[in-house]
């Protein structure tokens, strides 16, 4: 088949699909659909922060159709339709991704490393200063995300915020999240801004079981994080602020001369509420793999059951039974759809004191 015939056939098949695919339904570049028969592997990653969503596409480009004929290059945008019609139909969204890098290996496999266009725009340096004095955090976040749909809770207006020229809006959003003990993330065409303390208050969205083939949702394998000592050494702090009339303060609104086993760290805050929020964070618990499920997404609650071959102790209670999804990688390869899920739990450093 000639080179022209290959290109024509690619566009013909892309424009007239005869079946639904797994995970990646359609990819459009400059409003032209790409032939998914060239797709080797796709990984769609959703995260509980502003590092995602990400998309990794591996394409067979032995004939250089994508690089030369279509002219795909970094910082161009792809429109991707994601869905899972064959299984549970819980994933159905259209997202735009910016190509960051596109390395090529010796086997002519072209890898497109992409980031959500919404997040990419938030990582572009600001060209002018913006000041938010006395505004509620949710109002500041709504202003920074350029009126994209957002699901937010109400937060007290305690700190003032500013975005200076050359500063990335994503950095300010990360600062707002930390000072309010919250998470800010984007997935499936919507931003989320929620307090960490309320994440586990919701009812578990799904249940997953290990070593029980009778259940619909099963963990194929799992691995515990075992990162508690490392996290403790890096995060166990007594944050100290300064008030013009009261002097140094800690999170308990008391004089900072009070004894504490945690190392002291001076920060530029005068509110005990903010000082307490700095000690609230999420810590990894475990990760597991399972069959593909579009309902799995960052921020939802999972009920986990770890079964053991033991009559008297059938459940392993040393592992957490209720967790928050920190990130999930939806992977398609060789007509197989799998998920790799990383989970977390809230950690307040006061438990170490």
TrEMBL record:
Domain of life: Bacteria
Protein name: Uncharacterized protein
